[in-house]
Specification:
Strand content: 5-15%
Largest sheet: 5 strands, mixed
Strand order of the largest sheet: 3-2-1-4-5
Low-confidence stretches: none
Distance between the termini: 93 Å
Order of helices and strands: HHHHHHEEEHEHHEHHH
CATH architecture of the largest domain: 2-Layer Sandwich
Radius of gyration: 31 Å
Shape: elongated
Number of domains: 2
Number of helices: 12
Number of strands: 5
Structural class: alpha/beta
CATH superfamily of the largest domain: Ribonuclease H-like superfamily/Ribonuclease H
Helix content: 40-55%
Length: 268
């Protein structure tokens, strides 16, 4: 056996006579205490809480040692994942990739649109604004306001944009992965009029940077520090801001310090 373990006979016999080390003995006592605390918590405590419980009892021990002893004893917190991966979801989003990245920037209006929803404080509640932007001219081509964040809101903004612009088939419509844009109702409507849907990559909010930039501008120039008591107030303010200032006269640095309407007149 000594030959198999690559140890000397004298070393083996010395080990036999040495007995259990002090560290091993304290590990055994500590392990029993940890098991008791874990049982008392009905399996709810993981190593951080067990460590804190020992600390409150006056037991000085490192967090890593508690974690090691719990792992060796097979003790862990009784938890459940709040979010579960769904194979159906993965397959669904595989078919809705970021098509914007595959294409060059739009050179004309009604080639690429982008849409998103933002929150607006209304009294002690929230209002929701959905917008659709033409990525060539940066014009807001459709928008809608509601006290509910749902598909009705996004559909209203989209249908307003379609009615006012009458885009040809092949238009790219880009959004984030929100349920308001993944809904069958939205997808079927867009595919029915020949619109190609595109969505952000997971964790890449910058894929929809133009709309995020508009929301930042809107809140800084119109909404910041303004008390809004009901949806009637912001709707009129938004109409004046979007339709008469932002689209018609505001100078946009990203398109050469001219207005979206001016860009579109150049293409007529």
């Amino acid at each position: 056996m000594c030959l198999h373990l690559s140890v000397s006979r004298s070393g083996y016999y010395a080990w036999l006579q040495r007995g259990v080390s002090k560290h091993a003995r304290t590990d055994k006592i500590l392990g029993e205490r940890i098991a008791l605390l874990h049982k008392r918590s009905e399996g709810r405590y993981g190593s951080p809480k067990i460590h804190e419980a020992l600390k409150q009892e006056g037991v000085r021990v490192g967090k890593k040692r508690v974690a090691r002893l719990m792992k060796e004893a097979g003790l862990k917190a009784r938890v459940d994942r709040v979010y579960r991966r769904q194979n159906k979801s993965r397959a669904f989003f595989k078919g809705l990739k970021n098509r914007r990245r595959e294409l060059s920037k739009p050179s004309k209006i009604n080639q690429h649109w982008s849409s998103d929803v933002t929150y607006i404080r209304v009294g002690n509640k929230w209002g929701y604004l959905a917008v659709v932007i033409d990525l060539c001219s940066r014009k807001i081509v459709g928008w809608a306001l509601s006290n509910r964040l749902d598909t009705d809101l996004t559909m209203l903004a989209i249908t307003k944009a379609v009615r006012s612009r009458k885009p040809k088939q092949g238009l790219l419509f880009h959004t984030d992965r929100g349920r308001e844009y993944c809904a069958d109702r939205v997808r079927h409507y867009l595919s029915g009029i020949g619109v190609m849907q595109s969505m952000n990559r997971p964790g890449h909010c910058t894929d929809n940077a133009e709309v995020e930039s508009f929301f930042k501008t809107l809140k800084g120039e119109l909404i910041k520090d303004a008390f809004i008591g009901s949806l009637v107030q912001p709707e009129e303010k938004l109409r004046r801001y979007i339709d008469y200032f932002y689209n018609r006269t505001r100078l946009h640095g990203s398109i050469g310090y001219i207005s979206p309407i001016a860009i579109e007149k150049q293409q007529i």
